């Protein structure tokens, strides 16, 4: 198949969405399909850079998310490129600029258009005028408008599917969790991250790895740190990533006198992420805005146990303590973290993790997606035939 993926976010931008798309692209190509990325320009990519099968369209920073981009032109250019590539299907990954361009391309090429709904926007309304401009109702209306006439919708988790059903979206919805390239996280460590960070091999390390944004609630982890350090004096929290909340978090760490127990690494190259998972004793997250928790399954692939905030997605994933567990408040989090640190081999049954690995693999991710693509093509062709028959009947009736 010739597959066109339309997205506002792609590498070198760092996000779960960009990682998900790159994983899908590589897994589909591995299975013999041709994948073309239609995305925005990026200040970190030279305009003359040669990027095979990637087409970038002029863009500007998005309001309130200045590290994200919005295309400002390219509608007909995208159509011309897609026509030359003889696309079989369009798969949009954004509800904004490139998403609408993708819908335009699919409509004019008369091919199916599928969409992956990555972001739970109701969790992000505070970014726009402190939540005073947009309400959940507006998110519902915007979502229904964009998803109108879609051939199919991919929901990365049960939570997303339930939300879309609550919005009364009519298009077929399929739950397909984002996969990960298991081999990236199972292979041998290539760098001694602990030595580079000045940590000893025996020192207990908690890992937070995400965009350092307010909705990730890293502040909850920092707030709990003094109590955790009281139980484990040489404990370290390593915060990997960059984002708008970093300055406030650094101030919070200083105020709590925890500077000697926290390391901010800044942004890390995607190819080096696995080394950080292998360096840690435990992955922790207090985020309550995860629709798919890509870092959770990366940690699991790296055999790193996780302790995260309770959510429908986390409940689906963490079905055994040998994989990880959840918490609802600070006391529970402290108890769960201490339990894993003090009894590191108490939950080492490999069977539950092995069972989960196939379900989260990039290969299985691609297989499910291709199956959905083909189902959508069949349905699209049937609907098109019905419409053609209707037009033919109307034409005969007019002639009479």
TrEMBL record:
InterPro entries to which the protein is assigned, alphabetical: Glyco_trans_1, Glyco_trans_4-like_N, Glycosyltransferase_grp1
Any one GO MF annotation of this record: hexosyltransferase activity
Q: Which CDD domains match?
A: GT4_UGDG-like (cd03817)
Annotated protein name in UniProt: Glycosyltransferase family 4 protein
């Amino acid at each position: 198949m010739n597959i066109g993926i339309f997205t506002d976010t792609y590498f070198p931008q760092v996000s779960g969405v960009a990682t998900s798309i790159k994983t899908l692209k590589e897994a589909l190509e591995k299975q013999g399909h041709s994948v073309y990325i239609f995305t925005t320009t990026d200040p970190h990519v030279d305009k003359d850079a040669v990027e095979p099968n990637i087409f970038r369209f002029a863009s500007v920073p998005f309001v309130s998310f200045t590290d994200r981009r919005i295309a400002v032109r390219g509608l007909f250019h995208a159509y011309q490129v897609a026509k030359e590539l003889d696309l079989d299907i369009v798969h949009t990954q954004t509800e904004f600029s490139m998403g609408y361009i993708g819908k335009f391309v699919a409509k004019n090429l008369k091919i199916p258009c599928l969409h992956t709904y990555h972001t739970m926007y109701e969790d992000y309304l505070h970014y726009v005028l402190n939540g005073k401009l947009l309400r959940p109702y507006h998110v519902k209306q915007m979502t229904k408008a964009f998803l109108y006439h879609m051939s199919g919708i991919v929901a990365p988790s049960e939570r997303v599917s339930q939300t879309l059903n609550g919005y009364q979206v009519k298009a077929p919805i399929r739950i397909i969790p984002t996969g990960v390239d298991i081999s990236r996280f199972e292979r041998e460590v290539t760098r001694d991250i602990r030595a580079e960070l000045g940590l000893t091999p025996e020192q207990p390390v908690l890992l937070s790895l995400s965009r350092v944004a307010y909705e990730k609630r890293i502040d909850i982890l920092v707030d709990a740190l003094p109590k955790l350090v009281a139980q484990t004096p040489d404990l370290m929290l390593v915060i990997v990533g960059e984002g708008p909340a970093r300055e406030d978090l650094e101030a919070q760490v200083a105020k709590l006198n925890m500077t000697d127990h926290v390391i901010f690494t800044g942004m890390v190259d995607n190819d080096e992420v696995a080394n950080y998972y292998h360096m840690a004793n435990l992955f922790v997250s207090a985020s309550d805005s995860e629709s798919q928790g890509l870092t959770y399954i990366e940690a699991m692939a790296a055999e790193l146990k996780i302790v995260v905030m309770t959510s429908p997605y986390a409940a689906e994933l963490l079905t055994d303590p040998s994989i990880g567990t959840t918490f609802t408040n600070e006391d529970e989090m402290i108890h769960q973290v201490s339990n894993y640190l003090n009894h590191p081999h108490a939950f080492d049954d490999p069977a539950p993790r092995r069972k989960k690995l196939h379900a989260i693999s990039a290969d299985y991710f691609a297989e499910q997606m291709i199956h959905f693509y083909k189902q959508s093509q069949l349905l699209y062709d049937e609907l098109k035939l019905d419409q053609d028959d209707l037009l033919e009947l109307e034409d005969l009736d007019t002639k009479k």
